[in-house]
Specification:
Elements lengths: L2 H15 L3 H10 L3 H5 L5 E9 L6 E8 L2 E10 L2 E8 L9 E2 L13 H6 L6 H8 L5 E10 L2 E3 L11 H6 L15 E3 L3 E2 L4 E8 L9 H12 L5 E11 L12 E11 L1 H10 L3 E8 L7 H12 L2
Parallel strand pairs: 10-12, 11-13
Antiparallel strand pairs: 1-6, 2-3, 3-4, 4-5, 6-13, 7-8, 8-10, 9-10, 11-12
Length: about 300
């Protein structure tokens, strides 16, 4: 199948899973000149919809309430311990993630190690079944993304929470400082959408850089330099945030934040960022776990397609 045909199939899949009629009309209109736009669509390689019924996953989503709210704070847990605080349910509050003590291990089916090391180019059924068996129960969009990750240190240049977030929300009203993630992370270039919306991607490690093995990173640097494109594995969430009001007339006033929490691939992601070359990410986007609706998840996927 040609690249154009593959991209057409992806768009058709996104359209089928969306229930937003105005979005469907817009996508169908854009697809009238499909060949001219598809050639620029290189960031999203493939997409599929899958469901996990697992009751034995090491990973879970959890919430905690406060006051009159039975559920307010949201978490990813690993082996029953909080690994990341991933924000709250408030749509006008600022987006954030924060590394916690439970973020201390990778989660990856061992039978996939070699396939991820050499790289995945398509979403095969047996591959999807193997990964979904290790995920929390729920519905997912499986995304195969190709990107060049840029490593970011908290409070340093390039930090979303120091720059783009402060520009729209300002600093924390209590601490008077930008949000501190307690972890380095990776970014990809911002995607500008219509109507003042911007899509921001974050690749978040499950354990710190100092735990990585230099020999493994160097091995991936060699492979990447030779043209290999290995694959990382991630659990992903889309949070859509827009302040109730803002100052001035910012170009972007709604932040669509797509976070990929790395389950496997820490060494290869670091190596790719050091070399400035692409890796692929097999991302399982939890459709119902973010501050977003299903049709908005579909629209975010469409935005990735247009790159």
């Amino acid at each position: 199948m040609s690249e154009i045909a593959q991209k057409a199939a992806i768009i058709e899949s996104v359209i089928r899973t969306s229930t937003n009629s105005s979005f469907l009309t817009a996508v169908q209109s854009r697809c009238s000149g499909l060949e001219s736009i598809i050639l620029n669509m290189s960031s999203l390689v493939a997409v599929s919809t899958v469901r996990s019924s697992s009751v034995e996953s090491r990973i879970a989503f959890a919430t905690e309430g406060g006051g009159s709210w039975p559920a307010w704070d949201r978490f990813i847990t690993l082996d029953g311990k909080k690994a990341y605080r991933i924000g709250n349910i408030c749509g006008t509050c600022a987006f954030f993630f924060e590394r916690l003590g439970g973020a201390n291990d990778k989660v990856s089916p061992p039978e996939l190690s070699q396939r991820l090391r050499t790289g995945i180019s398509e979403l095969e059924d047996d591959l999807l079944r193997t990964v979904t068996a290790a995920l929390p129960a729920g519905d997912y969009n499986a995304l195969l993304l190709k990107c060049v990750p840029k490593r970011v240190l908290p409070s340093e240049p390039g930090d979303y929470f120091r720059e783009e977030q402060v520009a729209l929300w300002g600093v924390d009203s209590f601490y008077g400082l930008p949000h501190y993630t307690k972890t380095e992370y990776y970014r990809t270039p911002q995607i500008n959408m219509t109507n003042g919306r911007g899509l921001f991607e974050f690749i978040v490690p499950m354990f710190p850089k100092r735990w990585l093995h230099t020999d493994a990173v160097n091995s991936y640097r060699t492979a990447l330099s030779d043209g290999a494109i290995p694959t990382s594995l991630a659990l992903s969430i889309l949070d859509i945030k827009q302040p109730a009001d803002w100052e001035g007339d910012p170009t972007i006033n709604a932040h669509w934040c797509l976070s990929h929490y790395l389950l496997d691939g820490h060494h290869k992601t670091l190596a790719a960022s050091e070399l400035g070359v692409p890796v692929t990410i097999l991302s399982f986007l939890a459709i119902d776990k973010g501050v977003s609706r299903r049709e908005e998840v579909a629209e975010a996927i469409q935005a990735l397609l247009t790159q």
